[in-house]
Amino acid sequence: MPLAADTNIYLIGPRASGKTTLGRKLAESLGRSFVDLDARFVEARGETIAELVAREGWDAFRRAEADILAETAAQKGLVAATGGGVVLLPENRALLAKGLVLYLQAHPDRLAERLMADLNPDQRPNLTQLGLKEEIVATLAEREPLYFSLAHACLPERPIDELLEYTLRALKMF
């Protein structure tokens, strides 16, 4: 039985793992709408994540992110790229579990390379006071068990075209 057309597909994983890039290509291949939750936050709030975090802290962002995920989950048949920390709140995990969840894996060295190549502190503010590589390792240690617990499939790091083909093959299992 093929994946139901009204099932949302959620891409989870650390920042810079390729969720937005894959999400756009996957949505196009499947003829579905694409949503980037971080971009939706900026559109809805009229401010960057960094601005909210600087003013009110990460907890305020997580609450806003949960609202945006709930609004997105009420729609059907989307491909959605989530923020890396969306898995931290239990209510978010419950919403994600109602769709098909794909975990984009990436090595910490590769994540650091991508983040250094595309510095965007407004969209990707530091999560800790650690250096970039140390922050990535610490964040993965905290979040990876949550990513694994939600994932219907884990997508290995690959060049984007190979990753898209791998993902489309994986979706045939559902």
TrEMBL record:
<dbReference type="InterPro" id="IPR031322">
    <property type="entry name" value="Shikimate/glucono_kinase"/>
</dbReference>
<keyword id="KW-0808">Transferase</keyword>
<comment type="similarity">
    <text>Belongs to the shikimate kinase family.</text>
</comment>
<feature type="binding site">
    <location>
        <position position="38"/>
    </location>
    <ligand>
        <name>substrate</name>
    </ligand>
</feature>
<keyword id="KW-0028">Amino-acid biosynthesis</keyword>
<keyword id="KW-0963">Cytoplasm</keyword>
<comment type="function">
    <text>Catalyzes the specific phosphorylation of the 3-hydroxyl group of shikimic acid using ATP as a cosubstrate.</text>
</comment>
<dbReference type="GO" id="GO:0009073">
    <property type="term" value="P:aromatic amino acid family biosynthetic process"/>
</dbReference>
<keyword id="KW-0067">ATP-binding</keyword>
<feature type="binding site">
    <location>
        <position position="20"/>
    </location>
    <ligand>
        <name>Mg(2+)</name>
    </ligand>
</feature>
<keyword id="KW-0479">Metal-binding</keyword>
<protein>
    <recommendedName>
        <fullName>Shikimate kinase</fullName>
        <ecNumber>2.7.1.71</ecNumber>
    </recommendedName>
</protein>
<dbReference type="GO" id="GO:0004765">
    <property type="term" value="F:shikimate kinase activity"/>
</dbReference>
<dbReference type="InterPro" id="IPR000623">
    <property type="entry name" value="Shikimate_kinase/TSH1"/>
</dbReference>
<feature type="binding site">
    <location>
        <position position="143"/>
    </location>
    <ligand>
        <name>substrate</name>
    </ligand>
</feature>
<feature type="binding site">
    <location>
        <begin position="16"/>
        <end position="21"/>
    </location>
    <ligand>
        <name>ATP</name>
    </ligand>
</feature>
<dbReference type="Pfam" id="PF01202">
    <property type="entry name" value="SKI"/>
</dbReference>
<dbReference type="GO" id="GO:0005829">
    <property type="term" value="C:cytosol"/>
</dbReference>
<comment type="pathway">
    <text>Metabolic intermediate biosynthesis; chorismate biosynthesis; chorismate from D-erythrose 4-phosphate and phosphoenolpyruvate: step 5/7.</text>
</comment>
<keyword id="KW-0547">Nucleotide-binding</keyword>
<keyword id="KW-0460">Magnesium</keyword>
<keyword id="KW-0057">Aromatic amino acid biosynthesis</keyword>
<dbReference type="GO" id="GO:0008652">
    <property type="term" value="P:amino acid biosynthetic process"/>
</dbReference>
<dbReference type="GO" id="GO:0005524">
    <property type="term" value="F:ATP binding"/>
</dbReference>
<dbReference type="GO" id="GO:0000287">
    <property type="term" value="F:magnesium ion binding"/>
</dbReference>
<dbReference type="GO" id="GO:0009423">
    <property type="term" value="P:chorismate biosynthetic process"/>
</dbReference>
<feature type="binding site">
    <location>
        <position position="84"/>
    </location>
    <ligand>
        <name>substrate</name>
    </ligand>
</feature>
<feature type="binding site">
    <location>
        <position position="124"/>
    </location>
    <ligand>
        <name>ATP</name>
    </ligand>
</feature>
<keyword id="KW-0418">Kinase</keyword>
<dbReference type="InterPro" id="IPR027417">
    <property type="entry name" value="P-loop_NTPase"/>
</dbReference>
<feature type="binding site">
    <location>
        <position position="62"/>
    </location>
    <ligand>
        <name>substrate</name>
    </ligand>
</feature>
<comment type="subunit">
    <text>Monomer.</text>
</comment>
